[in-house]
Amino acid sequence: MSPALEATGLGVRHRRTWALRDCSLSVPAGRVAALVGPNGAGKTTLMHTAVGLLRPARGSVRVTGEAAFVAQDKPLYDGFTVAEMLAFGRRMNRHWDGAAAVARLDRLGIPLTRKAGRLSGGQQAQVAVTLALARRPDLLVLDEPLANLDPLARHDVMRSVMAEVAGRELTVLLSSHVVADLEDTCDWLVVLNGGRLQVSGDIEELLDGHLVLTGPDGASAAGTRVVAASRTGRQVSMLVKGPPPADPRWRARRPGLAELVMGYLRSPGSAALPHLTEVGA
Ligand SMILES: Nc1ncnc2c1ncn2[C@@H]1O[C@H](COP(=O)(O)OP(=O)(O)OP(=O)(O)O)[C@@H](O)[C@H]1O
After folding, report:
1. Is the ipTM of this complex over 0.95?
2. What is the 3-state secondary structure (H, E, C) of the chain?
3. pTM (2 decimals)?
4. Ligand 1: which residues within 6 Å by Cβ?
């Protein structure tokens, strides 16, 4: 099956600044992919390029089928009611599933007569996602859909996106700064750092392929690939890729998603890119 999203040697520039360099990644169809990275990493640039809002300076990015995009600032028209925005969407889009959108908003308890400016932040996010889904996309691209939402609203938005993925052929790419929000819902991870791709892969496989080691200062880590290391007093803690080292003084355990992400973000020179050129390695 062709990947839902594929970038090959992708380089994108904003005037003279390279926002993305040499990014090669592919997200299989049907996945919920988390796109994470610090401010300025290039997440929005990657999303804009994927949906055709920006043109690559180098390489290419390809989406299989149709993509729908929800921008960071959830562009709803404050003075319009939800029903008016649905009517507008119907006029602007050839493939428009208005019935599914109305049913979705009904399930979420969002009144069609309410003006967008009078909806809560969580409701606005849900309406923006609903309008994007009504276009029946193959790929749904969400730029920080959870920003500024309280934990309950964040959970509700993620749960409702998951329900859509379960019910149809849909791939989701969503960016977030809060890794904990992504833990139960995403099954693919893309990490960008300073415009470079650091990680792209299946989350379970990535977690299985890494270890957190703790041991005394001076224990030998020979034979492992250290992603990141930190020291507390005489204790050393490391995120490593591959099998544990032979030195029996290390205690080893599987990392959590947040530990894996933080380990890579702390070490921009490390990369975990199976089947691809290792950037910065
Ligand atoms: N319109 C623009 N003009 C010039 N430079 C830009 C423009 N948009 C983004 N950049 C630069 O490109 C780089 C990547 O920005 P981008 O917005 O893609 O990052 P991001 O990972 O989405 O960041 P954030 O988490 O802060 O939203 C940054 O260095 C940024 O300053």
Report:
1. yes
2. CCCCEEEEEEEEEECCEEEEEEEEEEECCCCEEEEECCCCCCHHHHHHHHCCCCCCCEEEEEECCCEEEECCCCCCCCCCEHHHHHHHHHHHCCCCCHHHHHHHHHHCCCCCCCEHHHCCHHHHHHHHHHHHHCCCCCEEEECCCCCCCCHHHHHHHHHHHHHHHHHCCCEEEEECCCHHHHCCCCCEEEEEECCEEEEEEEHHHHHHCEEEEEEECCCCCCCCEEEEEEEECCEEEEEEECCCCCCCCCEEECCCHHHHHHHHHHCCCCCECCCCCCCCC
3. 0.91
4. 14-15, 17, 19, 37, 39-45
